[in-house]
Amino acid sequence: SFYAEREKMKAFRHVLQGETQRDLMLTPAFRRGISKLKAFNFTYDILIFRDQLNFASQLAQEFPDQPFVLDHISKPDIKNQDIKEWERDIRNLAKAENVSCKVSGMVTEADWKHWKPEDFTPYLDVVFDAFGIERLMYGSDWPVCNVAGGYGKALEILKDYCRSLSSNEQSLFFGENAIKFYNL
Fold it and tell me: How far is CA 10 from CA 2, 40, 138, in A?
């Protein structure tokens, strides 16, 4: 039945990164759709590139009661170690307490054949500092991560990074925050 299927549905996502209109999320029609989600306890995954972070900040501020999660840390240019503007915009978005961040998709933004685990540390430092452990969640980016080393290698980057966290913080990051966010 409709209600049984609705119980399985938790979130919505539009591939905003693929839109030619970079600020599509700020149009009246898009915002109207976002305004309907909270009434049904739906969350929204923000799938964007770095150049759309400021639009995401505006959207999150406009809907402070709507839970959002930024997918793939907004796909920064790890391959070229471009971090300055991304960091500024990530920190700005993280000021919105209704926004969480899914830590995923990093290996596909690096040099697919030659990345090293330490290439990701500056980006991880930023998101862990900006969002805090309570608003971060692990994401696998499977099967897309297979083009740049695979699931196991991508997971190992995050396991190594999180070794200094307490077991409780690791549990939050690797599962409990997602369970809470998506009401699983």
Answer: 14, 9, 17
**Tens of pLDDT along 128-147?**
999 999 999 999 999 999 99
* Segments in the chain forming alpha helices (H): 2-8, 28-37, 53-62, 84-94, 121-131, 151-162, 167-171, 177-181
d(CA 145, CA 166): 27
Residue type at position 158? L
Residues 31 and 42: their CA atoms lie apart, in Å, by 14
Residue given tokens 């549905």 in the structure block:
9
CA distances from 147 to 79, 111, 112 (A): 14, 11, 7
pLDDT at 20 over 90: no
Q: Is the pTM here over 0.85, yes or no?
A: yes
Q: Quick one: tokens of 182?
A: 């998506």
